[in-house]
UniProtKB/TrEMBL annotation:
This is 1-deoxy-D-xylulose 5-phosphate reductoisomerase. 1-deoxy-D-xylulose 5-phosphate binds at K126, S152, E153, S186, H209, S222, N227, K228, E231. The keyword Ligase does not apply. Keywords: Isoprene biosynthesis, Magnesium, Manganese, Metal-binding, NADP, Oxidoreductase. Residues 147-239 form the 1-deoxy-D-xylulose 5-phosphate reductoisomerase C-terminal domain. Residues 271-387 form the DXP reductoisomerase C-terminal domain. GO terms for molecular function: 1-deoxy-D-xylulose-5-phosphate reductoisomerase activity. The gene is dxr. Pathway: Isoprenoid biosynthesis; isopentenyl diphosphate biosynthesis via DXP pathway; isopentenyl diphosphate from 1-deoxy-D-xylulose 5-phosphate: step 1/6. Its cofactor is Mg(2+); Mn(2+). Catalyzes the NADPH-dependent rearrangement and reduction of 1-deoxy-D-xylulose-5-phosphate (DXP) to 2-C-methyl-D-erythritol 4-phosphate (MEP). Its EC number is 1.1.1.267.
Length: 398
């Protein structure tokens, strides 16, 4: 039977890769709903090609989309708006699969709604899990949602873990013979830069990742290693594992997407060409496998695989994320919010690249940490952290 798919963030890098996979399997999947925040022209073209039943945009873009759809004779497509619209499609009874591919905290409530509605949720929006880890994981258990990792590292870990691991109650220590997770990182475009060179880098340079083509925010996060920090937190929640059982390994070729070590001395790695279509297809079809256009790995062409320890002096964001995970409570939400604000300021050339981690650190020291049991507390911490980060930026610029 055909699966009905909702793609939150369809115009983004992950959204586009998702469409590419669905297009290859028209008998297995249909697009029920899509959302976009900007690039409404592109959204209209997606509507023309995939004929969803519902499209979601910000309220002030409804008229623009409506005109486009009218011109394309697609006025039968329902338009919903804002967060309420995103939540409505995420939990819609006719939806089987939700691709959570909005970037940042904006994806939290829609993703959580999909989980609470017991959907198969393909999680790309790592910030949502970083903010609400325990709540999101508990909701997945309580509502029998299938929360499948799309982030390539977590998808790799999922593939290397015992098949029934997701259901294990780990108490922080890995179970079922697993001893450690090795989370790989490319090291980003500035892996070999000195601190002085890091101070000078431009947004354009930061957005040019050597191995992956991605949205702007995650590209900057990859360059600061905050992406790895967020992924460390993501891994702890997804696999109910304490942070000291997760080691970050810099692996510049991005061929191994992460590894799992076992007590008997085995290390299992998942490898492949760096293309998000592989983890997306895996999460879509699991436990089956479906075809993608991604070519098989050519090991004869890939002459060398290298591994290094991350340098937390030049890339302090990784250390800040680990500390936030250790501290628990709303610290990861504070870290995430401050980082979102700082990255946006860097992209607007208001601050330097090296200021991003500084602002995150200052914000973590300013906003007080507390328990993250209530969603309201997390959202409140997010708002306070944004205000504190804006303050720090203001002081830095004056
Ligand atoms: P992107 O910037 O290319 O796309 C983001 C999407 O979210 C767009 O469709 C945009 O319209 C929408 N969006 C942005 N702000 C919004 C808001 N305030 N409200 C509603 N919608 C909004 O980002 P991306 O690279 O596709 O990444 C999406 C998510 O997937 C991120 O959380 C990222 O960390 C994660 N991820 C991406 C990759 C990758 O290779 N691109 C890999 C792993 C994980
Ligand atoms: Mg990743």
């Amino acid at each position: 039977m055909s699966q009905s798919v909702c793609i939150l963030g369809v115009t983004g890098s992950i959204g586009q890769s998702t469409l590419k996979i669905l297009e290859q399997h028209p008998d297995q999947y249909s697009v029920f709903a899509v959302s976009a925040y900007s690039r409404i022209d592109e959204l209209a073209q997606i509507c023309r090609q995939y004929q969803p039943k519902i499209a979601v945009v910000p309220a002030d873009r409804v008229d623009q989309l409506s005109r486009h759809l009218k011109d394309l004779q697609l006025s039968h497509i329902q338009i919903l708006s804002d967060e309420a619209g995103l939540i409505a499609v995420a939990k819609h009874p006719e939806v089987d699969v939700v691709m959570a591919a909005i970037v940042g905290a904006a994806g939290l409530l829609p993703t959580l709604s999909a989980v609470k509605a017991g959907k198969r949720v393909l999680l790309a929006n790592k910030e949502a899990l970083v903010m609400s880890g325990d709540i999101m994981m508990r909701a997945a258990r309580d509502h029998h949602a299938l929360l499948l990792p799309v982030d390539s590292e977590h998808n790799a870990i999922f593939q290397c873990l015992p098949h029934d691991y997701m259901n294990a109650d780990a108490h922080g220590k890995p179970v079922k013979g697993v001893s450690r997770i090795l989370l790989t990182a490319s090291g980003g475009p500035f892996r070999q830069h000195s601190l002085q060179q890091l101070h000078e880098v431009t947004p354009q340079q930061a957005c040019k990742h050597p191995n992956w083509s991605m949205g702007q925010k995650i590209s900057v996060d990859s360059a600061t290693l905050m992406n790895k920090g967020l992924e460390l937190i993501e891994a702890c929640h997804l696999f109910s594992i304490a942070e000291h059982f997760v080691t970050v390994v810099v692996h510049p070729e991005s061929i191994i997407h992460s590894m799992v070590q076992y007590v008997d001395g085995s290390t299992l790695a998942q490898m492949g060409n760096p293309d998000m279509c592989t983890p997306i297809a895996h999460a879509l079809a699991w436990p089956e496998r479906i075809q993608t256009h991604v070519p098989a790995l050519d090991l004869f062409a890939q002459q060398q695989l290298n591994f290094q320890e991350p340098d937390i002096v030049r890339f302090p964001a990784l250390k800040l994320a680990r500390e936030a995970m250790k501290a628990g409570g709303v610290a990861p939400a504070i870290l995430n919010a401050a980082n979102e604000v700082a990255v946006a300021a860097f992209l607007k050339e208001q601050i330097r690249f090296t200021h991003i981690a500084e602002i995150v650190e200052q914000t973590l020291n300013t906003v007080h940490n507390r328990s993250a049991e209530q969603l309201e507390t997390i959202l409140e911490a997010d708002t306070q952290a944004r205000e504190a980060a804006f303050d720090s930026i203001g002081k830095m610029r004056s």
